[in-house]
Design goal:
12 helices, flavoprotein, FAD/NAD(P)-binding domain, about 25% helix, alpha/beta, five-stranded parallel beta sheet, 23 strands
Length: about 575
């Protein structure tokens, strides 16, 4: 097969773009009550090997699909695959979202595929290929184990509620072994150390769109400092994107930051690089951001650092999301809270960072800082789907469709045009798995993956395209519009979604056959209540006023929610990106 080289150029990407779903009449199927796929689905690709991807593999293979699972890392587990190796420095300013995770790598133009190339001194190539995860050595779960488990694979009786990331890594690996798709199972259905560089719509012999072509790159170690890269393509009828949502680090746009990063290499970094507190012993540390990673790193670092400052910015977003006051309970009392940073004051040649100055928005100047950690979150980034970004120029390869409809926002804040946050409405053979915030991703994935298997095997039906768009618009209105909290669920929406999936999928099972699914265990709410008391010191409303008073003294105001409203958003804030 000849590689017709496709040039990918990224034009200027706006920091924030207002984008609306494209609801053109030509995309509506008005003749049928149900969506009809244009061709039967047989081969399915799964991108990723985290817990949700493993469940997808189980559900899809159980109903007879031929499934291939591609994982860029060397083992399953997703974010739970901890290594001492840290990611590369996050660029300042942040990389354009279409390449925020990685820059795709292709074989030289006009070569036959598969094509291989040898690398020497490949440490950086290996690191960028596998993408080390944003996990530190002492990280423990911030949701109790009874709520953070797969329905089919419960924890052993007596398992403690708070578990280390090592326990979750082993849990994911044990489940992968049960499915015979662990990295040491040598199952031809899996491709570890393999990154998906590009996904294109494939054209059949009649020039009609039919399925997807994946451009793949594997990286196989051949020695201590050498490896072999191999590029090839594979074709599929449907694709599940389960590559995670914590891949593109965000560095804030603060005047002077880029100059400080250049002048003080290694002293300023994103929280995804944090591994151990010993590296900060007897140092004065500024943590920018106070959401989940910011507050937990603050706890971890406090016993080693000489002084810890925590910078927080105003939380003025009225959309449903996790409130900063919740995380303040986890931050040690000897931490000094400061307001939002206005600028990093320019430094003179040869000046140390400790003698340099940082100005806050309230005019306060702080100095004497040895290290800075930016716990400023992540954005959605899918470098293998460049044609679906508005500001990307993309040339399709030979045999691929040039008719695409951009739907990925170039600010990476959310994902548009998904039915049930799962199926891509214009073409439901493309699905995104595990993209919601504010939910128990382990147990919720069972419902999503069963929906994938039933819909693609034609044993459950999607509504026609027009109705999917109507439901999408209704959901967008209920969630306060598109934006960074659009994928947020919280317990009320989660409960409603699970009830919807149960009703829809179980009714389909009665009509078309196949398995049914139960709801979450009855103890879920009670376990969550006990966890909040033990982990956060009590229900949010009991201490809300005290925490808000502290924040307001720094010029930081939180939206005033009712006790009932604020309570429901206190739920599994795993790696939230508010700061």
């Amino acid at each position: 097969m000849k590689l017709a080289f496709g040039l990918l150029l990224l034009a200027g990407v706006s920091a924030a773009s207002v984008q609306q779903p494209l609801l053109t009449p030509s995309t509506w199927d008005t003749d049928n009550d149900e969506y009809e796929f244009k061709f039967p689905i047989q081969r399915v690709a799964i991108i990723g090997a985290g817990p949700s991807a493993l469940v997808a593999y189980r559900e899809l293979t159980e109903v007879g699909f031929e499934v291939r699972l591609f994982e860029r890392d060397r083992a399953p587990g997703g974010n739970w695959h901890y290594t001492e190796e840290a990611p590369a420095d996050a660029p300042v300013p942040s990389a354009p979202i279409p390449v925020g995770d990685f820059v795709p790598s292709f074989a030289p133009p006009d070569v036959e595929l598969p094509y291989s190339q040898e690398y020497e001194d490949d440490a950086e190539i290996r690191r960028d290929h596998r993408g080390p995860k944003p996990v530190w050595e002492s990280l423990t779960s911030n949701a109790p184990s009874p709520l953070q488990q797969l329905i089919e694979w419960p924890w052993p009786v007596g398992t403690k509620w708070e578990l280390s990331h090592y326990a979750f890594r082993n849990y994911a690996r044990s489940y992968a072994s049960y499915l015979n798709i662990n990295s040491n199972d040598e199952n031809p259905a899996t491709a570890y150390n393999t990154r998906v560089e590009l996904i294109e719509k494939r054209l059949n012999e009649d020039g009609e769109e039919q399925g997807w072509r994946l451009w793949l790159k594997s990286l196989t170690p051949t020695g201590n400092n050498t490896s072999r890269a191999t590029w090839w393509t594979e074709d599929f009828d449907a694709v599940v994107v389960a590559s995670g949502r914590y891949n593109a680090p965000v560095m804030p746009l603060i005047p002077g930051l880029a100059d400080w990063v250049r002048r003080f290499p290694g002293l300023l970094g994103h929280s995804r690089q944090y591994r151990r507190p010993e590296a900060y012993t007897n140092q004065s540390v500024l943590i920018v951001g106070a959401s989940v990673s910011g507050s937990e790193i603050s706890r971890d670092i406090n016993t080693s650092a000489r002084k810890v400052y925590q910078s927080m910015r105003a939380d003025n977003d009225s959309a449903a999301h996790y409130r900063l006051a919740n995380y303040m309970r986890r931050i040690p009392k000897n931490t000094t809270f400061v307001g939002e940073i206005s600028r990093f004051i320019p430094v003179n040649e040869g000046q140390s960072m400790q003698s340099s100055q940082i100005e806050l928005k309230n005019g306060t100047i702080i100095t004497g800082i040895d290290r800075i950690i930016f716990a400023t979150g992540f954005r959605y980034s899918f470098p293998f789907l460049p044609q679906y970004y508005d500001d990307a120029f993309y040339t399709p390869h030979e045999g691929s469709s040039s008719s695409v409809q951009p739907f990925l926002p170039t600010d990476g804040s959310h994902i548009r045009d998904l039915h049930l946050d799962l199926f891509y409405i214009p073409d439901p053979t493309l699905a995104f798995l595990g993209m919601n915030l504010g939910t128990q991703s382990f147990s919720y994935s069972d419902y999503l993956c069963l929906a994938l298997a039933k819909v693609w095997s034609n044993t459950a039906k999607l509504p026609h395209t027009r109705r999917m768009w109507e439901m999408y618009e209704e959901r967008a209105e209920e969630r306060g519009g598109l934006g960074k909290h659009f994928q947020f669920l919280g317990p009320a929406r989660l409960t409603a979604n699970i009830r919807f999936f149960m009703g829809w999928l179980n009714e389909a099972a009665v009509k078309y056959g196949g398995k049914q699914i139960d709801g979450l265990p009855k103890y879920t709410d009670e376990v969550n209540d006990y966890w909040l008391i033990s982990h956060y010191g009590g229900p949010l409303e009991e201490r809300r006023s005290d925490e808000e008073a502290v924040l307001e003294s720094l010029g930081i105001r939180l939206p005033h929610l009712s006790d009932e409203a604020s309570r429901q958003y206190d739920y599994n804030p795993m790696y939230d990106d508010n700061w």
